[in-house]
Amino acid sequence: MIRIRSAARFASLAAIALAGCASASDKPMTTLSPKSDLAQWIYRLFIQVTLWDALIFAIVVVAFILALFVFSTRVGEAGPASTAASDLTLEVAWTLGPALVLLMISIPTVRTIFRTQGEHAPEGALEIRVIAHQWWWDFQYPDGIKTANELHLPSGRSVRLHLESDDIIHSFWVPQLGGKRDLVPGQVNQITLVANTPGMYPGQCAEFCGLSHANMRFRVFVDSPADFATWQTSQLAGPVSVPPDRQLVMDGARIFANSPCTTCHTIQGVSRGYIGPELTHFGSRSTLAAGVLANTPDNVAKWITDPNEIKPGANMPPLLLAGPKRDALVAYLESLK
Ligand code: CUA
Q1: Cβ neighbours of residue 78 under 8 Å, at least 6 residues apart?
Q2: Residues 109, 185: one domain?
Q3: How far is ligand 1, taken at its centre, from the CA of residue 29, in Å?
Q4: Which tens digit of pLDDT belongs to each residue from 13-65?
């Protein structure tokens, strides 16, 4: 009975462990499906070290089993005769053996550490400023594009991210593309990578940074070069002009322009705030509130009504708007493609 119960327990534990082996699309936070050169280097090091560890584990287990079953003394049997006090060959072997293993692990480790520093980028690399705030991400491109919480990268091109912090220490981590690297106030750290497979890769702040650390998420979109160029063109264009037939959007634009939102948020040609995320192309993003919610009118309404309900500790105050006025503001924000 006990045996059946422990077998069942083992089976359920194995099921939980194997659940971690699902494909990368089911487990987007996996580091075992590298999609950039940087992530690939770290992954290769992980595999090398794991193989060395597995070899040592196998040797220890074999020695242990031999000691238990082959070289053990049965009850009533005489023990083995004692041998010489020391055996020089054995002692040299078990000193040199582990030293050699440590050397084999440290050489690729140190090489990978230097290789992944990211200070040097090849000519023509795209340079992007990444500024962490409690609790959102600010991405600034050299051509003036500014976006928040959603980073677009061209596939196949070198990208150097300059990591900065506006307040305290955060950490940039996109499991399938690389990281983690700290964003430290008063210092600029770098990550250089070439993302090789178009797709969406979720990221997460990986350094505890206060109440909403877990809500400091972001998304990296790796676009084909053509898609990236299209995205760039759309972002460089100003905010879309409000179609005159859409009364609700026009009302929303007026409400925004006369609201306290303008002190913190920038919409090009409308306001020049810099404390909160840039909103010029807010409607083109797939998420809001640093990747916490899908960008839908209902969620935007929820967010502006009480940001602290969704992101505890958020600096954004609740907007005292309800009914048609709130609907108009939401319609305007969503129109900013
Ligand atoms: Cu930022 Cu944790």
Answers
A1: none
A2: yes
A3: 16
A4: 555 555 555 556 678 889 999 999 999 999 999 999 999 899 889 999 999 99
